[in-house]
Each structure stands twice: as C-alpha cells, then as structure tokens.
Amino acid sequence: MDEMFTVNGKNRKFTFEPDERLLHTLRNHGFSEVKNGCLEGECGACLILLDDKPVNSCQVLTASVIGRDIKTVKGIGNLHEPHIIQEAFVEAGAVQCGFCTPGMVLASFALLKENPNPSETEIKNALDGNLCRCTGYVKIIEAVKLAAERLGNGGME
To answer: Pick from 18, 71, 131, 145: CA 20 to 30 A from residue 29's CA?
Structure first.
C-alpha cells in the first residue's frame, strides 16, 4: 500500500503492507527514534503521539491511521532546538541508555499539555506503561517536575 501521512507536521508518503504495524512502518521510513521494544504494548519504547494522545505504535496497524496526525519525539524538539521537556530530562540526569527516553518524553509532553501542574502521583500515572531498566524512575519524575516548573501554569501553548 502507498499512502500519505502527516508525521511531525510534514506530509510523507509511506509504502507498507496491509497488516503492518505503525512501529515498523515508521522505522522502515527512517524514524529510528521510535524504538522497537516488546512488540506487546507493555514497554512504551515505541510510544508516539497520535492526534496528541500517547499510543504504543506496535499495537496500531498503519492502515488504521491514514489521515491522522503522528508525532515522534523529534516532532517536539531536536538536538539543535530541544523542547523544555527534553532539556529537563538531560539536566535532571533522566537519560542513561536512552532507549526509553523518547517514549518517556512523549508521555510527559502529553501529560503537561493536558495538566501543566501535575502531582507526583499524576506524573507516575502518566508514565505508567513506559519501562526503564536504568534509572529507577526517580530522575525521570524529577525531570517532569522540572519541565512543569519551567513551562509554568500556562502549559505548552
């Protein structure tokens, strides 16, 4: 199949199989920031924002998202122009191996967009489903708190 998609605000033409998962389509088209983890929707490594909602891309058929807005972590910021959340993760030491980081950042982005001043419990709930084997989550939670503080009560937009 050949279809047009909007990824990170840009129109892209993807070729994919009818039963292909969005994770594989994205990775096959150069979006290596979407990580291939468990393929069961349990680890959050493949998390993307689909119409601004966090979704495990390994659980979504590509054909089912034609015409919808897809955002990877590179859609909120990059190395040269990082988002405040990405900066906070670095400053708080919330990145170690980096495998879980894109999913954690996107889950945090979705949370702070909806709730600019979350409690620690709300942060933990938003990150539930994103597994990290390096940090123990303390620094990740600190990073989300730091980002919320820097963004202020005005939120992201």
So the answer is: 131
